[in-house]
Amino acid sequence: MTFDPPGRKARPDRQNYGDRMPPGQRLSEDWPVLTAGAVPRIDLKRWAFRVWGEVEEELTLDWQEFMALPKTTVSADVHCVEGWSIMDNTWEGVAFQELVKRIHPKPEGRYVMVHSYGDYTTNIPLEDLLDDNVLLAYKHNGQELTPEHGWPLRLVVPKLYFWKSAKWVRGLHFMNEDRLGSWESRGYHRRGDVWREERYS
């Protein structure tokens, strides 16, 4: 894992955010870039988003088709397994529940493997993805995501540590059993609930 650059100011946060700050976290005034490997170069003309596996309707969308989906805006905090948190983020994108309306997961499709450009994967229970504030985001605080932070599309799952909010998302594989993703197979927690401090296995 590389850090580019940490350069962040952190301070205890409980006095300002109370119950919104999970245990073991501190407030960050910057958004650090944490990336394993190089930032992928993505051509939107060739970009494709695919959903497959244990679903009634598999789905493949190009960028224009994805951007034609109904949009939503979500306010959600970010909590990194490294211990920093960024509060009061505004994300704009497509709600995960909007995709569910189109693909109709089968009863056995209870787990999802998120696939990203750059060969990154992360596993998430479908139950966690069905929260109202989970989305596939292309904007953060009114600005298009930068490549370092996941442009053109990243997943945002606020109640899980931020490594689960995969950058450069290109597909979702619905599965009938849980399998480990990139960091999970290297010792990170299978689920990553921030309130239970599920940092490492």
Secondary structure layout:
Elements: E1 2-3, E2 10-11, H1 14-17, E3 26-28, E4 34-35, E5 48-53, E6 59-62, H2 63-67, E7 72-79, E8 84-95, H3 96-103, E9 111-116, E10 121-125, H4 126-129, E11 135-140, E12 143-144, E13 154-156, E14 169-175
Parallel strand pairs: 3-8, 5-14
Antiparallel strand pairs: 1-4, 2-3, 5-6, 7-8, 8-11, 9-10, 9-14, 11-12, 11-13
Task: Give a written overview of the molecule.
Helix content is 10%, strand content 34%. It has 201 residues and is mainly β. The chain has one domain (2-186): Sulfite Oxidase, Chain A, domain 2 (Alpha-Beta Complex), CATH 3.90.420.10. Strands 2, 3, 7, 8, 11, 12 and 13 form a seven-stranded mixed β-sheet that branches. Strand 9 and strand 10 (121-125) form a beta hairpin. The model is unreliable at 1-12 (pLDDT under 50).
